[in-house]
Amino acid sequence: MTCESFPTEAELAAALGRRIIDAVRQRPRLVLGLPTGRTPLALYQELIRITGDERVDWSGVRTFNLDEFVHLGPGDRGSYRTFMEERFFKHLNIPPANIGFLDGRAPDLDAECERYERAVTAAGGIDLMMLGIGVNGHIGFNEPSESLVARTHRVTLDEPTRAANALWFDGDVQRVPREALTMGMGTILQAREIVLIASGEAKGEAVTALLRGGVTTRFPASFLQLHPRVQVMLDDLVAGQLP
Ligand code: PGA
Prior knowledge:
Shape: globular
Strand order of the largest sheet: 1-10-9-6-2-3-5
Helix content: 25-40%
Structural class: alpha/beta
Order of helices and strands: EHEHEEHEHEEHEHEHEH
Number of helices: 8
Bound molecules: 2-phosphoglycolic acid
Largest sheet: 7 strands, parallel
Number of strands: 10
């Protein structure tokens, strides 16, 4: 695991944005794994800005988002699909058929998880997976637990996770769904390359555990230590807290 820090979140987003744009240019059929949350917002804005300035062509790119709330899907307020449409997809020319997403409104959620696994495999796997990290060490919605499910599956969300997501539901934690669908850690670890981004004071402890702690299902992000190509990108608010 390599680790790099940047003075500000904006500088981190600029560096990673440039790297992703270069990857899209070099490999027009790139397969990207994408997160939602507060963390990637600056990155998505940067990618949209560069795309406008430099006329970047995303028409061959495929994407797979990490997770979605159960009972929410395209067009629903608070769904991760809507988050991604508004903040990223609608600003680029990725064909809708190339956008891989879990549908939390699918009639059979187990079948939906299996469909998603097959779709990732059919795309040839994920080339570059971008991740955030939860304050509890979750990745996607793989919450700390006695054991982890390797493949895409349905999960019950931890209360701190629901609280952190109230932001997308007008601050009302009661409206945050109790369950979600998420890529499993096994699916995530099959990506050829992984970049984890962490910014802001609240992430200091989690990143310390990620970099220095043991590998444990009680801290799902720790499994990233087992992957040969993980880069951790931090702003100074996080880096300043590392021992
Ligand atoms: P955040 O979420 O970017 O909103 O902090 C990160 C995560 O939970 O993975």
